[in-house]
Amino acid sequence: MAEHTSSSITIEAAPADVMGVIADFARYPEWTGEVKEAEVLSTDDQGRAEKVRLVLDAGAIKDDHTLAYTWIGGYEVSWTLVKSQMLRAIDGSYALAPLGDGDRTEVTYRLTVDVKIPMLGMIKRKAEKVIIDRALAGLKKRVESVPKA
């Protein structure tokens, strides 16, 4: 599972605003499309999600899975699979980099998925790319539509 897929996008908002949307799992069904339910199962001592149950409906892939999250400072979060019906593994991350005077953010999303059903590597990478591109577009739209405080 060394191969991964990644993509980046620039969002017209500060990194803290972008991370605020990423960390707000309860609202994922409002902007991600594929996530139909999100439930935080446990949090760390800073109140950030450690384990999250997600119900996905991404057309061919429907799944109920739990992910474990690791927060690295204020600019990065990564996750790994705890349990799933369809997935053997899922490893991903969002890494944020402030741009200019800090009012724009480059977001890089990395993802590696391994499904329990046989799938050609090329098809799997294409599916990862679709997931990443949809997630980044949804994140950008969501962050940029939230009124600034």
Structural commentary:
The protein is α+β, with helices and mostly antiparallel strands. The protein is built from 3 helices and 7 strands; from the N terminus they run βααββββββα. The chain has helices at residues 15-23, 28-31, 121-145; strands at 5-11, 35-43, 49-58, 61-72, 76-83, 87-99, 104-115. Strands 1-7-6-5-4-3-2 form a 7-stranded antiparallel beta sheet. Helix 1 packs across helix 3. The chain is globular, with a radius of gyration of 15 Å. The chain starts with a strand and ends with a helix. The model has no long low-confidence stretch (mean pLDDT 87).
Short description:
This protein is an alpha+beta fold and 149 residues long.
Order of helices and strands: EHHEEEEEEH
Largest sheet: 7 strands, antiparallel
How many strands? 7
Sum up the overall morphology in one term.
globular
Radius of gyration: 15 Å
Which strand order does the major sheet show?
Answer: 1-7-6-5-4-3-2
Q: Provide the low-confidence segments as ranges.
A: none
